[in-house]
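Team,

Forwarding the record for the chain on the shared tracking sheet. I've put the sequence and predicted structure together so nobody has to dig through attachments.
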Amino acid sequence: MKKDIDLKKDVEMELQWEPSVNAAEIGVAVKDGVVTLAGYVDSYAEKWAADRAAKRVSGIKAVAEEIKVRLRGISERTDEDIARAAANALEWHIYVPHDRIKVTVQNAWVTLEGEVDWLFKKNAAEDAVRHLTGVRGVANQITIKPQVTPGEIQKKIEAAFQRHANFDAKKVQVSAYGDKIILSGTVRSWAEREDAELAAWAAPGVSNVENNIVIKI
């Protein structure tokens, strides 16, 4: 296990490696494998990128992100301007059902609410507003509407393996709990196990897949 001083150096190097982050403005401290990032940045996008960079470092247990966004000069925007820009960004994003998402802006913090049927659409909505000028933070409260049943997932798994040779879909059990899918049973190879998981993710409404399938030769 890496020492805290080595983790600190690794995080600092990763921040320097990330082109969208001004590493000189961010302080790094590590204690018991937990990283604390502090300082000021010019945008929420940079703050987000710094957090992601730290989490990429091997050996890090958690990240305490205390970075503050300091808007300067032309970066300042009114809540009304940010709300208008956010609405436009959502409308123009191909993966975002903008008519099902509500935007609220207060003190330059953007809150997204609504309901979608895919996890990637929720993430796409946040990505659309994260890089807007003047944004200090984003609270993504969009929910994923469960639209799956075990039977539907089972059919998708069977269809996926019909494209491969000699797979017995009956050996894979599927349970659906809201937007969470649990897979169990046995397959003959790692590739078959991955295909089963991909089939589960392909169903609308799924935001979590727990793959407990065992490889049995």
